[in-house]
Specification:
This protein is mostly helical. It contains 2 helices and no strands.
């Protein structure tokens, strides 16, 4: 969590390119977390039927 807050803090002092880069990293992170949650949900549903 500290890494994420440091990333956001440094983004405020960054150039325009840096802000786009940080936005890209955050979007990628959100996609990874959402995909992991979806896969966990699928696995839990599959275990119910076995």
């Amino acid at each position: 969590m500290q890494t994420l807050t440091e990333l956001l803090t440094n983004m405020a002092h960054s150039s325009t390119e840096g802000k786009f880069g940080v936005a890209g990293i955050l979007i990628f992170f959100i996609i990874i977390v959402a995909t992991a949650c979806y896969r966990i949900k699928q696995n839990l549903e599959n275990e119910k039927y076995h």
